[in-house]
Inverse folding.
C-alpha cells in the first residue's frame, strides 16, 4: 500500500535578537542586523514539532532580508552559537487524518501478516494432514487383511468387478465356515475408496435382498471374490467394519 501525502513545512517563531557589530553583507552597515529563530514543524494530516532550528536575518538599515547564501563567517558563527542555547520541545499529534492513515496502515500490514501466517500454517499442517490420510488408508488396508480372515455379518467389502470395470460395495450377511461359504448383498451404488468406515455411503436401503450372492471364504481370505462356479468376479480392495 502506497499513500502519497504532501508534507507542509511550518516555521514556529522562537525569538528575535540583535546581531552586535556584524556588518550587513548587503549594505555593509554595522550593528543594524537582527536574527530571528524558528522551530521547524511538519504537517501532513498529523503535526510534528522537530528539533531543527532555522534562522532569518534582516537589516534595519537597508530594510532587506539577508539570504543564507550571503551570510559571512560572523553571521554563521553567531547563528551556531545562539542555536546551541535554544531549548525546543518536540511533539507529535496524529490528528484525525493522521489517525485514519495510521489505522489504514495497521490494517493493511495486519492483513498481510495474517495472509503470510495462514500460508505458513497451511504449508506446515497441510502435508501433515496428507500424511495422516495416507497412513489411515494404509492402516485400513492392513485391517482389511485381518477382516478377511475373520469375516463378520455387516462387514462392507469394496470389490473391483472385472466384468463391469467398476467398484462394487457388498455387505456380508452370513458366514458358513463348515461349507466354506460367505454370503453378501450387493449395493446399487458405485463409490471411490474412502479413508475409513465412517465415510462409506452404505445405508441399509442400498442393499436389496435380491442381490445376495455366495463366494468362497478361502478365496476371500486371499482378497479374491470368486463365485461358486469358480469364476473370478473381482479383487477385494478394502474391507470396512463399522
Amino acid at each position: 500500500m502506497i499513500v502519497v501525502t504532501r508534507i507542509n513545512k511550518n516555521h514556529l517563531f522562537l525569538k528575535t535578537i540583535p546581531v552586535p557589530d556584524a556588518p550587513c553583507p548587503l549594505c555593509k552597515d554595522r550593528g543594524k542586523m537582527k536574527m530571528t529563530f524558528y522551530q521547524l514543524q511538519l504537517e501532513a494530516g498529523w503535526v510534528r514539532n522537530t528539533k531543527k532550528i532555522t534562522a532569518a536575518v534582516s537589516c534595519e538599515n537597508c530594510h532587506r532580508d539577508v539570504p543564507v547564501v550571503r551570510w559571512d563567517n560572523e553571521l554563521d558563527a553567531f547563528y551556531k552559537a545562539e542555536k546551541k542555547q535554544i531549548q525546543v520541545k518536540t511533539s507529535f499529534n496524529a490528528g484525525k487524518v493522521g489517525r485514519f492513515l495510521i489505522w489504514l496502515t495497521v490494517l493493511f500490514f495486519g492483513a498481510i501478516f495474517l495472509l503470510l501466517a495462514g500460508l505458513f500454517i497451511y504449508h506446515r499442517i497441510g502435508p501433515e494432514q496428507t500424511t495422516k490420510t495416507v497412513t489411515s488408508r494404509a492402516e485400513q488396508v492392513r485391517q482389511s487383511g485381518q477382516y478377511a480372515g475373520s469375516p463378520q455379518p455387516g462387514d462392507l467389502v469394496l470389490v473391483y468387478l472385472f466384468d463391469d470395470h467398476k467398484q462394487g460395495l457388498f455387505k456380508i450377511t452370513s458366514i458358513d465356515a463348515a461349507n466354506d461359504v460367505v454370503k453378501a448383498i450387493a449395493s446399487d451404488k458405485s463409490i471411490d475408496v474412502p479413508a475409513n468406515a465412517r465415510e462409506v455411503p452404505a445405508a441399509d436401503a442400498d442393499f436389496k435382498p435380491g442381490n445376495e450372492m455366495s463366494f468362497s471364504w478361502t478365496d476371500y481370505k486371499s482378497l479374491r471374490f470368486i463365485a461358486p462356479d469358480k469364476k473370478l468376479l473381482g479383487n477385494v480392495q478394502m474391507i470396512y467394519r463399522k
